[in-house]
Every structure is written in structure tokens, then in C-alpha cells.
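Notebook entry, structure prediction.
Reason for the run: the old model in the group folder had no record of what sequence produced it. Starting over properly, with the input documented here first.
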Amino acid sequence: MNNNISKISGRIWKFKDNIDTDVIIPGKYLRTTDMSVFASHVMEGIDPQFPQKVKKGDIIVAGKNFGCGSSREQAPLALKHAGVACIVSESFARIFFRNAINVGLPIIEAAVECQEGDIIEIDLENGIVKTGDKSYTGTKLPDFLRGILADGGLVEHHKKKAQQ
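New structure, fully documented this time:
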């Protein structure tokens, strides 16, 4: 699978509307900073087997309002450390959207018809999502947000800028 920052492809995991942060990483695991703990419990609130099934480079495709609920930064961190390469959703909760960018987890807003297990291709630079022979136009991320993602997140982005 190609997982550079402008073109991403991977296997689809499909989820519904309103996936909240408590489902992404249940609150009982928030007392740690161990990313392997987050990864081993990601999405277990909706699919207890998901942490064992997800592979590096897989992509989540969801309905509307992905990441609603609390402002916990651990939700996108858990997904990223479980190997999720990108999230495609019709819409994101605003704080999740920004937290995902801040931790370097690529996301794109697009309504996509697909089946779980299919391969999806995402062109972040142009806002295009492809599954099979279908192509969808998503919301193109501004250059500055793609720059943060390319640097691995906001902290790394600021470190890079400070060295220039």
C-alpha cells in the first residue's frame, strides 16, 4: 500500500454515523500515555475484535459526525497508533478534525459508497477518493494543513519550522 501523505491507499473498515470518542478509545484507558494500550483497545466500544483485525495502512470510512463527543486527543492517537492510515467521513466533529491534524492522522471529508474490505485510494492534494471504478470529490485540505500532516503533526511541524 502507498501511504505517503498526498496519496494514500488501503483496506476499508466501514463505520456508521456519530462514532464518538468514547467508542474510539473508552475512557477507562485514558490514565496511560502508552500508545500501545490505546492501539490495543481502539474501537472496541463498537467492535471488540477491531484492535486485532486492523492492520497498518487500513482506512476507516464512516458516515457523518465522526469523532463527536469529548475533546480527547487520545482518540486520533489511538487510531494512528493502531495503524489506521486515514479516515474518510462525510463530516467530522470540529475538535476531532483538528486533533487528527495535530497528531498527524490524515482525514478527508467525503461521502463514499463502499464495502468493508474493499481497497480505497485517497488523493489528499486534490480531494479525490476512489473505490473500484467510482470516484468521489471530497473537501480538499488547505496546503497548510497538509503541511502539518506531512511533517507528522503539529509538534513536529513547529520543530521543523524552528530549524529553518
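Summary: DSSP finds seven helices and seven strands in the chain.
The old model has been moved to the deprecated folder.
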